[in-house]
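Record 1 of the preview.
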Amino acid sequence: MNLKKKLINVVVLLAFLFLPTSAVQAQNPNPGDVVLFGQNYTLSSGETLNGSLVLIGGNITIEEDAKVNGDVVLIGGNLDAGGDVSGDVVLIGGNADISSKVSGNIALIGGQAKLADTAVITGDVTTVGGQLNRDPDAQINGDVINNAPPTVDTPATPNVPSTPNIDVSFNPIAEAFSVLFKALLMAGIAALLTLFLDVQIKRVGDYAVGQPLIAGSVGLLTLFVSLLLILTILPVFVLVCAWLLGIVALGQEVGDRFTRAINQTWQPILSTAFGTFLLTLVAGYVGLIPCVGWLFNFVLTLVGIGAVIMTRFGTRPGPGSTTTVVQGVPAG
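->
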């Protein structure tokens, strides 16, 4: 099943995710494509959409005798398809009721779909963490690919128990020095970035502290979409740069709060480097805790990346932000 075109549409959607408008027309080669965010969309009976439809956080209704001449991508909403879709349907984290013809494939990622007795699917139906409820009279011309059950390797000789493989290579002293080295490296990177991007770093940090839940949610969505696109069109360095800028911005907040706590005033480059060093050091040592240590670092990553996305890499204040950033002036 070819989902590349739908994944490209998701990237277009993500690009418009942090625009202040609630609905925008997608600026892509097909002027008929529609990208919507946070609202409902209804294609009335007798109407035809000559393009693809991408929506996040809303509901799509395609009434009977309506038609979409393109693909339908829905993230976090409900789809009621009583009209025909000439392309593919991708559903991520939602529900779909389909009683019409889909002249393509259907992909369910963490969603549920119900095929009525009048549904006709020309292509394949693939579920990844989703569920398909199919009427016996529903027609699927392609294959139905459900979640593959996990496989367990059994020993070649069942009567002889296998010897457990215990990893004893953990060296706490080496791990501690590794965390320290990474913290020093991050401090150096933070100092270098502050020389050129102090204002941008401040914007990202202000949004991460002011809107951590929104930033974390956007970071999770960005990471999820990036994993889908890692082998297609999304450069790896973009995600790495977003993570790096986000961690440095959080480190700057830590450094500023530390200096205020000790009633000191440091140069931005020094406070940012120290704060990033301290944050990376603590996160690294917390990460050494078995089973749960990774969670702290994962949350930091989500909040940092989300804040970078919402501020467009610090080029402007995030939505709802009222903080005015002033370029730091070195002390005379």
